[in-house]
Design a protein that fits this description.
The protein is α+β, with helices and mostly antiparallel strands. It is built from 12 helices and 10 strands.
Length: 328
Amino acid sequence: MRLTSAQTAALAHVRTAARSAARLADTRLGGVDAEALTSYVMTRARITLNFHPDRLRPADGQTVAEALAADGLYRSQYETGLSNGGRTAFPGGARDEWERDLFGGAYHADGVRHGERPKYGALNLLGHPDGAAPRFGSCHVRLRAEVNHRATFCHGDSHLGPKDVGTSDAFTSVLAGLAEGGTDVRRKPSGEHGRALDGYVEAQVHGPVVLARDAEALVLDPSLRGTRTARLLASTGVPVEWHAGFALAPHEVDAEFRGPVMVPLAARVCRDHAADGLLNAEVLGHAAASVVREPQAWAEFGTQDEVLQYVKQLWHVLARYGRPEVRA
């Protein structure tokens, strides 16, 4: 696939930085065959793009699932205006500035369009069924192995300015960071949720993500079974798989993990949107849409932006503590 000059330059910048750090990284690995281990990881591990399919895009009011069904393209925050992380994808914003540093200004050259910017995901080293970075969504796109070769990687989130970066052919520094953090990339997958809210290998995919060409599967939360959202995603033609999901009763919500407001918010969300009284991904999706469409109804919790942030944090609570959802 042909990349633009900006995308090619971004990959080259990270590759150069990774190769310059390779000798020190070899020392940090303590004699491990980095080339063989890199080959093993890149053959087995898949990049996952976690997303919430029922969130409304500020750019056009469509849900993410509607947009994916319409054109089959997975787009970045620069195009959609939607993020399950920080919403700073604009000139001079925090994401814009850390991308300048990470990619050597490649995406800041004259004439570079928003659509050329990378798409963010994570490398699912241990095959977790909830994806490599579920903090960013209840569902994920599992990309084909060949997409690894047009991705850049960093150990930890890019907004932190990580020291260990790499590409599929210059991955030693990332391996060293993983080893020092206690991650055994050869460990056999357990088949259980990874619940990785932090501590992942972030991946930045350069070039377009065309579902029909680049996706191996769409892995959905079971609370979406039988919904219009699931039907829309299935209409893309990409095979659909299901993970075990997350469910939590309001009284089980931890008041410390994301703050005490999570407890009354969970009760309100379940009262209004959960027929069985349990918090799950679909219920949170209905709540998020309600906050966008009728913010005054949630004024007791703050402004629209504040409540949307709380809903995002409530998802973190659910992904961290929720038990596998039992469906009839």
